[in-house]
C-alpha cells in the first residue's frame, strides 16, 4: 500500500497537480484557435509531412561543337525515384530571384538549357503523390555554368590518314592541354558511325580496348565510356579526343560543372 506521511505530503501533491495544470493552460487555449503560430516547412519525417531529403545531383555541361565551334550549355538535374511518387516538380531559383517550378515530370531526370555562360542557378525537386501531397523533397543545389575556355587537343597519334600494321591495336595519344583535368576519347567506324571504344582519362594516352580509367558515375551518358564492336581490317575508323575542364579537379564525385572541347576528327585504317 502507498505510504502517507501526513499534511506535508498532501500539500506537495496538491501543488504539483496545480502547477501541471497551469503549464497546460496555454496548450489547451491554443487548441481552440485556428492557428497559434506559422508552421515551418521541414523535410524531417513526420505524420502528414515530407519524409526526408532525396539526393540531388546537378551538372552544368558546356560543349563546343567540333564543326561549328558554337557552344551549347545544358544543366543536367538527376535524382532517384521516390516511393509512391507520381509527379516530380523541378524548381529553379536564380540568385536574388524568386523560385519557380520549371518542369512537372512523371519520371526522374531533367535537362535545363535556359542558362548561358557564367550564369548560376539553384535547383531542388519536390516528389508528389497522386493527390499532390508532397512526399519528399531534395536539398537545394547551386551551380554556375562554365564559359567555353578549354582549348582543343592537338598532336593526335595515330595521325590523320594513318594505316596501322596487321593486327596492330593502337595506343591513342595527344599533347597535354593547359587547364584540362580529363580527356574523353571516342573511336567509331566511318561506315555506320558505330562507336567501338570510349574512355575517360586524366593522362594523355590510352590503349584502344583498355578499360576506361575514369567514370562520371552520376552522369555516365554525358561522357560515356562504352562501345560495341572491334577494329575491322581495311575499314576506315575515326577518332577524336576532347579536353575537359572541371570545377572539382580530377575527382568525378566532386565535379559540378565541366567545359569540354573536341579535337579535329582523325581517321585511321587497320592494316590487312
Give the topology, please.
Layout: H1 7-31, E1 53-54, E2 57-64, E3 71-78, E4 87-94, E5 99-105, E6 110-112, E7 120-128, E8 134-138, E9 141-144, E10 162-166, E11 171-173, E12 182-189, E13 195-201, E14 205-207, E15 237-246, E16 257-262, E17 266-271
Parallel strand pairs: 1-8, 2-16, 10-17
Antiparallel strand pairs: 2-3, 3-6, 4-5, 4-7, 7-8, 7-9, 11-14, 12-13, 12-15, 15-16, 15-17
Question: Could you characterize the architecture of this molecule?
Answer:
The strands form three sheets. Strands 2, 3, 6, 10, 12, 13, 15, 16 and 17 form a nine-stranded mixed beta sheet that branches. Strands 1, 4, 5, 7, 8 and 9 form a six-stranded mixed beta sheet that branches. A two-stranded antiparallel sheet has the order 11-14. The chain has one helix at residues 7-31, and strands at 53-54, 57-64, 71-78, 87-94, 99-105, 110-112, 120-128, 134-138, 141-144, 162-166, 171-173, 182-189, 195-201, 205-207, 237-246, 257-262, 266-271. Residues 1-49 have low confidence and may be disordered. The longest helix is centred in the N-terminal third of the chain and has 25 residues, at 7-31. The chain is mainly beta. Strand 4 and strand 5 form a beta hairpin.
Number of strands: 17
Helix content: under 10%
User: Looking at the structure, what is the overall shape?
Assistant: elongated
Oligomer class: single chain
List keywords for this structure.
272 residues; mainly beta; 9-stranded mixed β-sheet; 6-stranded mixed β-sheet; elongated
In short:
It contains 1 helix and 17 strands. The protein has one helix at about 5-30, and strands at about 55, 55-65, 70-80, 85-95, 100-105, 110, 120-130, 135-140, 140-145, 160-165, 170-175, 180-190, 195-200, 205, 235-245, 255-260, 265-270.
Amino acid at each position: 500500500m502507498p505510504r502517507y506521511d501526513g499534511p506535508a505530503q498532501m500539500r506537495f501533491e496538491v501543488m504539483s497537480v496545480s502547477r501541471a495544470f497551469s503549464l497546460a493552460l496555454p496548450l489547451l487555449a491554443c487548441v481552440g484557435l485556428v492557428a497559434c503560430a506559422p508552421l515551418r516547412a521541414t523535410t524531417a519525417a513526420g505524420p502528414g509531412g515530407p519524409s526526408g531529403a532525396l539526393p540531388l545531383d546537378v551538372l552544368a555541361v558546356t560543349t563546343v561543337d567540333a564543326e561549328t565551334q558554337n557552344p551549347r550549355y545544358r544543366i543536367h538535374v538527376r535524382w532517384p525515384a521516390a516511393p509512391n511518387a507520381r509527379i516530380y516538380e523541378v524548381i529553379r531559383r536564380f540568385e536574388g530571384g524568386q523560385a519557380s517550378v520549371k518542369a512537372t515530370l512523371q519520371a526522374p531526370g531533367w535537362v535545363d538549357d535556359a542558362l548561358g555562360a557564367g550564369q548560376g542557378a539553384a535547383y531542388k525537386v519536390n516528389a508528389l503523390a497522386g493527390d499532390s501531397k508532397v512526399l519528399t523533397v531534395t536539398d537545394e543545389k547551386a551551380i554556375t555554368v562554365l564559359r567555353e575556355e578549354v582549348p582543343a587537343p592537338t598532336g593526335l597519334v595515330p595521325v590523320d590518314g594513318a594505316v596501322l600494321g596487321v593486327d596492330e591495336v593502337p595506343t591513342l595519344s595527344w599533347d597535354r592541354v593547359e587547364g584540362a583535368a580529363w580527356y574523353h576519347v571516342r573511336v567509331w567506324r566511318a561506315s555506320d558511325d558505330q562507336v567501338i571504344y570510349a574512355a575517360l582519362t586524366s593522362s594523355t594516352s590510352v590503349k584502344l580496348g583498355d578499360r576506361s580509367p575514369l567514370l562520371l558515375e552520376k552522369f555516365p551518358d554525358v561522357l560515356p565510356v562504352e562501345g560495341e564492336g572491334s577494329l575491322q581490317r581495311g575499314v576506315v575508323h575515326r577518332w577524336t579526343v576532347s579536353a575537359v575542364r572541371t570545377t572539382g579537379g580530377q575527382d568525378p564525385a566532386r565535379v559540378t560543372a565541366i567545359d569540354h572541347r573536341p579535337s579535329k576528327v582523325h581517321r585511321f585504317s587497320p592494316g590487312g
